[in-house]
Amino acid sequence: MTDSSWTPADDARAAISGYGPEEPLLTALAFLEGLGRELPPSEMAITVTPESLDSWGDFSEAKLALDSIDDWGLGSYPEPSPTAPDVAYVKILAGVTEVYQVKHAALVRPAAWLSLVWRPEHGFWLVHAFGHPVEPERMPRTSPGEAPHYTRAS
């Protein structure tokens, strides 16, 4: 690929290509892609907290909620909880018709949020809720105050 054909979408793909399990954005993406592909609940279960598994049912309500967001896309960076480093929030945006990456803090109005919690016993972040952000004290936290460093807006 020549420099003249490199696009913002290529920037976004390159940015996440080196991400590891310490990145909440990867779990968020896996969860949403699983909903889109209608993976069976047994496969979706690895992306959510064990404590929330029963509340997801067969994940069809979450799929309907995602399908109700026209041209959804993820925010470029997770939002850390200001009071709990082991809790992060990922924005789901509406009207994203092309892939791009915002490289600085920007004010946006999300259509929905994913609430994630770092679970060291699993080795990665897990989704606990989809919709509105869940307060850290209402999430099943096994490493309060501790989480790996992850990519954030500068």
How would you explain this protein's 3D organization?
The chain is α+β, with helices and mostly antiparallel strands and 154 residues long. The chain has one domain: Roll (Nuclear Transport Factor 2, Chain: A), CATH 3.10.450. The chain is built from five helices and five strands; from the N terminus they run αααααβββββ. It has helices spanning 8-17, 24-36, 41-44, 53-56, 60-67, and strands spanning 73-74, 79-80, 87-93, 112-119, 124-131. Strands 1, 2, 3, 4 and 5 form a five-stranded antiparallel beta sheet that branches. A hairpin with a 6-residue loop joins β2 (79-80) and β3 (87-93). The chain is globular and about 45 Å long. The model has no long low-confidence stretch (mean pLDDT 87).
Summarize the structure.
With 154 residues, this protein is of the alpha+beta class. It has five helices and five strands, in the order αααααβββββ.
Tags for this model:
globular, 5 helices, alpha+beta, 154 residues, 5-stranded antiparallel β-sheet, Nuclear Transport Factor 2, Chain: A
Low-confidence stretches: none
Number of helices: 5
- How much helical structure, as a percent, in the residues? 25-40%
So, CATH architecture? Answer: Roll
Text of the CATH class? Alpha Beta
Which fold name corresponds to the CATH topology? Nuclear Transport Factor 2, Chain: A
- What is the string of SSEs from the N terminus onward? HHHHHEEEEE
Cα(first) to Cα(last) distance is: 28 Å
Pairing-aware structural class of the strands and helices?
alpha+beta
Average pLDDT confidence is 87
Number of self-contained structural domains: 1
Topology, number of strands = 5
Oligomer: single chain
Q: In one word, what is the shape?
A: globular
Strand content: 15-25%
The Rg value, from CA coordinates, equals 15 Å
**Main sheet properties:** 5 strands, antiparallel
